[in-house]
Amino acid sequence: MDLFDFEIFLAIVDTKSITAASEKLFLSQSTVSYRVTKLEEELQTKLINREQGQRVISLTLKGEEFLKFAKKAYNIKKELENWKNKDANQTINIGAVDSLNIYILPKLYKSFIQKNINIKLNISSHWSLKICNLVELNDIDIGMVSILKESQDIIATPIFREEMVVISNSDSIYNKIENPKNLDAFYELKLDWGKDFQIWHDYCFGPNIQTQLKVDTSGLIFNLVCGKKSWAIVPLEVAQFYNETRKIKISFLTDPPPSRTIYKIKNIYTRPSVKKNLDLFEEYLESFIINNSKLITPL
């Protein structure tokens, strides 16, 4: 049994597709199928349900059980690679949603690396669920997300909340204190801020409302807000960042959406080689949140 077989199996679980797994690993689809079949033969059990016309792959009960062993084996492989590469032992892999990495956390990163020059940070931006998947595999040591997934391999801790506000052009028709009913939903630049936000949005504007623009990253909002009716809802810290770059109008709602909760997530098994540095980074993170309590609410 090859450790690479575990990695192939995990790629299939992550992508829910043999085709997508082969693309992720830069292998042919036939190679991936062959390796999985040989793995099943060696284990003398079926791991994956293969049904004709089924686009999304599911695991058998034995496959669900084997998933735990595959994750452990993959983590051991990663730890061995880090052990051989001493430089990697000084690197903390951090993943966060883009609105945090672009607008909130750079000051934290800068402060940390200036005072800890021997510790390297490998920072990446992803959607919340992607970060959860990477933490499960220990490809990321610590993640900061707004949406969680159910996982026995992840420890999640709420660390702060962000008030949500409306931003618009400085000459917009909206007031500094605004009732959501006065917002023209068609001119919204809508970004999915999570389940609670969507419930609030459906309540205020209706579930079938048509908006002019939908985006998948907060970085687009700043460049697309235009005209007197255009508006978007963003965390207060993001709005303040926009306002420092270009004067905008920040409006507080009389009936605002729920604050966005940010969670710190880690694998239940922290790489021993990175634990000391990770503990230090978490101390800096905690201090950073407390020192910025005017814009974000510590939890």
Automatic annotation (TrEMBL):
<feature type="domain" description="HTH lysR-type">
    <location>
        <begin position="1"/>
        <end position="58"/>
    </location>
</feature>
<comment type="similarity">
    <text>Belongs to the LysR transcriptional regulatory family.</text>
</comment>
<dbReference type="InterPro" id="IPR005119">
    <property type="entry name" value="LysR_subst-bd"/>
</dbReference>
<dbReference type="InterPro" id="IPR000847">
    <property type="entry name" value="LysR_HTH_N"/>
</dbReference>
<dbReference type="Pfam" id="PF03466">
    <property type="entry name" value="LysR_substrate"/>
</dbReference>
<dbReference type="Pfam" id="PF00126">
    <property type="entry name" value="HTH_1"/>
</dbReference>
<protein>
    <submittedName>
        <fullName>LysR family transcriptional regulator</fullName>
    </submittedName>
</protein>
<keyword id="KW-0804">Transcription</keyword>
<dbReference type="GO" id="GO:0003700">
    <property type="term" value="F:DNA-binding transcription factor activity"/>
</dbReference>
<keyword id="KW-0238">DNA-binding</keyword>
<dbReference type="GO" id="GO:0000976">
    <property type="term" value="F:transcription cis-regulatory region binding"/>
</dbReference>
<dbReference type="InterPro" id="IPR036388">
    <property type="entry name" value="WH-like_DNA-bd_sf"/>
</dbReference>
<keyword id="KW-0805">Transcription regulation</keyword>
<dbReference type="InterPro" id="IPR036390">
    <property type="entry name" value="WH_DNA-bd_sf"/>
</dbReference>
